[in-house]
Amino acid sequence: MKKVLFATTALVFSAGIAAAEVSVGGDGRMGVMYNGSDWNFSSRIRVSFTASGTTDGGLEFGGSVRADQASAATNGTAASVYISGAFGKLSMGDVVGAPEALFGDLPEVGYTDLDGAGLGNVSGLATPAGLNGRPNLGANEIPYLTGDNGGSVVAGTTTNDTSGPNLLYTGTFGAFSVAASLSDGKVGSTNYNQEYAVGAAYTFGNYTVGLGYEIVDPTTGSNAKQATLSGVGQFGNTSVKAYYADGSGSNNLDKAYGIGATSVFGATSVMAYVNYAKADDGTEGTAYGLGAAYDLGGGASIVGGVADSDIAGTDTQADLGVKFSF
Asked: Domain 3-325 is of which CATH architecture?
């Protein structure tokens, strides 16, 4: 449950702007995780601050910042701001790329997401050197080419580019949804990869289909490109998502495809996915996941899952714990 900190915070940077609202929320988790050889404790807390307001002319504006704490040695923040109206929504900061904004990923399994069995372990995709190293690609993730929460999915000129902010536009007009995103290609005064992406989706009844196209223009070498076809269907209490991605240019993802489903039975949800990727050097792998969650009410739920893959060097991952939001 979100708690309102200031119901009417005065803004003085421009005349004619109405009062704004700032709220605080967050999420946490605690439990045990099996990493393939041992069971370990795993916990995390995140606190998020969200601000929003409306101008006298009806434009909505706001932003959010999230503080992460995984352990004494690992922490981070994520933040973005936006303005929206009848034209759609324009966001800047830690935002995803256009195709991911429309379709997201396959369903998460387990309370820690169990990324240890992820497709980033495919050797042709994990190589950090070169244009398209993706060592952090999770087991349930669609391997989008651009904009992963404000940073680059692919490697920069010398290191993985975690620069930002990125710019994202989204809009829904009747049955059509569109999105466009780009980066400024800079880390301070240093040139890095320039990213561009567009996406569009069409909804008819209980079904949505869409297409995304992404380009990474590096400071040296040729462009990396990727097209992704996605679809979502609702069948009673079950939601199914599937995709096919095709890489070209210097993108070392050859192709990828996967399907995932979530079914809800009262307070119980069951999630599963199968996800395959092949690099252009011929290395490939398939990841599998199965999990369940039971809603305890009040923002708390018991969540567990198992994930595995046929990728060399990976082991079965599993976890069980409590997730909560506030």
From this structure: Beta Barrel (2.40)
